[in-house]
Amino acid sequence: xxxxxxxxxxxxxxxxxxxxxxxxxxxxxxxxxxxxxxxxxxxxxxxxxxxxxxxxxxxxxxxxxxxxxxxxxxxxxxxxxxxxxxxxxxxxxxxxxxxxxxxxxxxxxxxxxxxxxxxxxxxxxxxxxxxxxxxxxxxxxxxxxxxxxxxxxxxxxxxxxxxxxxxxxxxxxxxxxxxxxxxxxxxxxxxxxxxxxxxxxxxxxxxxxxxxxxxxxxxxxxxxxxxxxxxxxxxxxxxxxxxxxxxxxxxxxxxxxxxxxxxxxxxxxxxxxxxxxxxxxxxxxxxxxxxxxxxxxxxxxxxxxxxxxxxxxxxxxxxxxxxxxxxxxxxxxxxxxxxxxxxxxxxxxxxxxxxxxxxxxxxxxxxxxxxxxxxxxxxxxxxxxxxxxxxxxxxxxxxxxxxxxxxxxxxxxxxxxxxxxxxxxxxxxxxxxxxxxxxxxxxxxxxxxxxxxxxxxxxxxxxxxxxxxxxxxxxxxxxxxxxxxxxxxxxxxxxxxxxxxxxxxxxxxxxxxxxxxxxxxxxxxxxxxxxxxxxxxxxxxxxxxxxxxxxxxxxxxxxxxxxxxxxxxxxxxxxxxxxxxxxxxxxxxxxxxxxxxxxxxxxxxxxxxxxxx
Length: 613
Ligand SMILES: Cc1cc2nc3c(=O)[nH]c(=O)nc-3n(C[C@H](O)[C@H](O)[C@H](O)COP(=O)(O)OP(=O)(O)OC[C@H]3O[C@@H](n4cnc5c(N)ncnc54)[C@H](O)[C@@H]3O)c2cc1C
Description:
Layout: H1 6-15, E1 19-22, E2 25-28, H2 38-50, H3 57-60, E3 61-63, E4 70-72, H4 81-97, H5 106-118, H6 120-124, H7 128-144, E5 148-151, E6 174-178, E7 182-193, E8 200-203, E9 220-225, E10 231-235, H8 251-254, E11 258-269, E12 273-276, H9 279-284, H10 291-320, H11 327-352, E13 355-356, E14 362-363, H12 366-391, H13 401-404, H14 409-415, H15 423-437, H16 440-451, H17 456-466, H18 470-482, H19 487-503, H20 505-516, H21 520-540, E15 546-550, E16 561-565, E17 572-575, H22 583-595, E18 599-602, H23 608-612
């Protein structure tokens, strides 16, 4: 089977016997038509239909390496920048369709599976079979276009101890025994969004919580069909109240459902196991495979779409009631624009600096994506706050569709009109704002964004640990000595750099030509200019110290002289672009040396050799 259509997705769901407990009711199937799920399930079906729409299918699908049939782009293993761009465009198309509100669309975990399967050898460290298993499972999900969700963290019983120590170790899902064919899991995991209507449940390690050697029983990664015997979902109260789309525009479409996951001796065959009893592999699961990078690439694409929606909504709101011109309103709109442009820039930087990982997968740069995923949980919280503040009482003047079309229609048209909209249109807009910032659906969205990748407080630790801070520390340490260098020493350093480049001119030119793709003639010119830059800076060292000013501008300073002296103030941060990787490095480094400052230089990665040579 290739990329599924909406009806194929719904057809499979209709046949599934998923066990869900919801509001006192036990379901063992029939999820697709249950009032708690039927609307969101149809929103998901629309996404699958897009895969067959001529307007989108070239972006949303690519030919399966196994069959040549179209399969979803999120499975595409990126080897070129164009592949990465297609992956982003596909995620953006889907995210735009839900205004970024759906967080578990298939592309999220399909991206993880793609990266995990590419790292087959890493899984093979424990046993070659695990490597085979993850590759085969990825191919199965790709070819059948299955919808996966995941469950990662232990129940929230007592966070003062690790999950494996809660209630004597009985609560958290763990392996209770193995037989000839596989493992048996008992216990619970805290949550799985879309659990009730996914096809597959990935029981994976946490992205943030670390396992210790004592957690062996709890340290595994496997995949379970959603209607496996013994698997139960305990779903929360739905926030889709079955109201018309006019009244609850978001909740009636995008209410994904979250559910506690209970394993009542669930048997998982070995071919569905990828890591078993190995805390260390669980801790490296996302980072060593680059899965976290590709997941975050998808997530930042989605949150960009969501921020675009917020900006559009906010702009319509401020125009509707004529408050655009007030400075504090503009400051709030500016805050949303800043968030949007920050996300876009980080996404772009991540793709521009992408490099193949050890498995040959073109992997976006991690630092910008990691920055985005650490920023957004906090930045998003401001959006509902801003909408509430600016919508004010208008958010309470929100009659229902029955009112808009009923006896109150004339009053609504007259008294609820706005500067730009008639009464009925204004009500429609304000109901959308209400569902984005006040409704229970919006509250769940804010919570979701905050905890999307785990607890942001505890995410800071890995963020700091994975960031290479040594160059900046070195710059600060070096400043203590560079600022004391006398002018003749600084001049000697600069002359020696110029001479060094001169002696290896041709080597520099050829490296530049190869890495930056510029004609050799242009590369040679750039090398000459860099030598010139260092020589000019060497001359400047003797001019920098300052000047004498005659101060006889007024009677009381007559006969006095002023001395201007210049001192380096601190390390300088230099960022160099890709187009002149040698000379524009010289433009930062040479004046810094001339003035006695140390430099932390951020180079464009594709020309790193040339720029640091
Ligand atoms: C809407 C929603 C959907 C979700 N969907 C999924 C899903 O599909 N799959 C999935 O696996 N998970 C899902 N999650 C769970 C998500 O991964 C967790 O919310 C997140 O990891 C934080 O864990 P927790 O909620 O148990 O909070 P807790 O760990 O219980 O933390 C509660 C509070 O205590 C503090 N705290 C607790 N322990 C420590 C500590 N050791 N050090 C410092 N502070 C501490 C935290 O900072 C926090 O403020 C979802 C969560 C939400 C809200």
